[in-house]
Amino acid sequence: MSARESERLHASVLVAPAADRRRLRIQRQRAAAALRAEQHRADQAAARAKADAERAERKATRYLPAAGEPGPAALRTPGRFRLPRHQDTSATLAGAYPFVAEGGLGADGVFVGQDLYSGGSFVYDPWVLYARGIITAPNLVLAGIVGSGKSSLANSLYTRSLPFGRRVYVPGDPKGEHTAVANAVGGKAIVLGHGLNTRLNPLDEGHRPTGLSDREWAITVASRRRDLIGALAETVLARGLTPLEHTAIDLALTAVVAENTVPILPMVVDRILNPDETADGRLAEDGRLVGHALRRLVAGDLAGLFDGPSTVRFDPSLPMISLDLSRVTENSTLISVLMTCSSAWMESALLDPNGGQRWVIYDEAWRLMSHPALLKRMDAHWRLARHYGIANMLIFHKLSDLDNVGDAGSAMRSLANSLLANAETRIVYRQESDQLGPTAQALGLTGTEQKLLPSLGVGQGLWRIKDRAFVTQHQLHPAELALFDTSSRLTSGVK
């Protein structure tokens, strides 16, 4: 083979494999294009099948008519509910959306429980709020039906205040519910009742406030004693006293105090019925009705309670003092007389400007407010609360109890309403449906707040603090729950 032929054969060998590779590459590209086309057709087929299925599902689905569903479900439309945007001040929004836009009272005070709308802790302290200018009166009104938890809340408010240096006075506890609490916190519960050795002399001088001269203290004691005996006589007689009857009381009291170091009620009654010979000859006749009315306290159904020197001493340094009247027969006049005497007995300490910050608890207020003398004393204490550092707490079952105080437009009704007006903290627990109107009117509740009251659970309350509103869940420690339980007599032995 010549050299030329050898070169030609070698060139053909080099060229042939390149052509084969090109052919194979083209075949692979065509095969890949065919696979992509097949996948595309499969995807399109799947998409068409899905669209057909959705179309069939929409055709098979039944929608509400455009005018809404007929019958009980009327006014419901398939369209989406849309509201236009609205921008306003926080004060206006707080009125339109109560509880939601409320910023809270801060963290200073006594822990109460949980704010049900914000989820945060709710604290309350009337002295703190007064110092911050949120309220101008530290008095409080608490209303709730039986079993709603209002008693537990009242007990929590004053017992949790004790570590802050506050003291607690209960001038009269008709059901004895505060006795166990007083003993548990290191205080004292004075139990009054027939057959007991406990006796209080309402004419005691009592605790002497610091800073008073002898003359000022003598005038204060004389005025308090005179007012007390007049209030007792008005309560028993169920009417006001005449000027002649006031004179008979004043002269008798002056004579007894001048002759005795420790005056007691029997001495005053005896002097009213048997005045001195040097007095006006008609004085015995003028004071006859008053004398016989007061005789009931020393020789009638109150004998043994207030007719002698006191067997217990009032100690204002104790954290809590409660006068337990649960042993007294259920009689409204009797209870009012007891409350008047017991209030006067601790009043000198209560009205001490240097006595510190104190809670004064008026439980079962419906009993007290039906008697003018007690109502006047309560009103005076409430008006002077800021001066004496007192926070009064008035506990009702329902606010419509105020409508049972005197006749419409009477002075008693005005005094009862002034108690509510001078309490800028109003706490309302669950109320019956028939009480919603009077409660809303008395407190100025909105429609939303009024509808909320029947649905409140145990321990849940609507707090109205001036113009602000909160809904809270009161929380108790297990030890408090056992101590504050007021239904133990009903539930004992039940498993």
Automatic annotation (TrEMBL):
It comes from the Bacteria. Keywords: ATP-binding, Nucleotide-binding. InterPro entries: P-loop_NTPase (IPR027417), T4SS_component (IPR051162). It comes from Kocuria coralli. GO terms for molecular function: ATP binding. This is ATP-binding protein.
